Amino acid sequence: MILRRIFQSEKVKYVIVGSFNTLFSLLVFILIDLLLQNLSESRIIVYMSATIIATPLSMTQSFFTQKYITFNSRVSDEKVIYEYFRFLFVSLWVLGLKIIGMPILVEIFKLHPWLSAVIINLLKAIISYYGHSIFTFKRKIIE
User: Fold this and answer.
1) What are the 10-residue block averages of pLDDT along the chain, 143 residues in total?
2) pTM for this one?
3) Are 74 and 34 in contact (CB under 8 A)?
4) CA distances (Å), 64 to each of 57, 67, 80, 120, 123, in order?
5) Which of 77, 113, 118, 128 has the fewest CB atoms within 10 Å, i.e. is most exposed?
6) 36 lies in a domain?
7) How many Cβ atoms sit within 10 Å of the Cβ of residue 79?
8) Cα dihedral 87, 131, 110, 118 sign
9) Is the residue at 107 inside a domain?
10) Does 6 fall in a domain?
């Protein structure tokens, strides 16, 4: 009974689903990074390109898991597009964090791009939770 109540908590679901989304995002980033390494000798071009290519894929996957699992949003079909645009709005702020943060961590602090992606993803998770719980999937805004 207690375990069931714990797993029904929105924050617990966010941590579990967010962990899956983060893992998915990191794997997509690393895969694209590995694929692009042979195309350019410039490390910054490679990891920033991987960031920009991986982000829309990860954002779309994350939208569906957050919508249906974490926040249990069941808005009607015609309102899903508005929900998705709100999701993208929050996610674009996170993309800005990635675009600014990755070069700072890699070029200035000399961290490996993969470690930098992990750090950025942890910050992203915190920002995204508040943005999506307050703005994207808040029922009063949508319904």
Assistant:
1) 74 90 93 95 94 90 91 81 90 87 96 94 86 81 43
2) 0.77
3) no
4) 11, 5, 10, 21, 20
5) 77
6) yes
7) 12
8) negative
9) yes
10) no
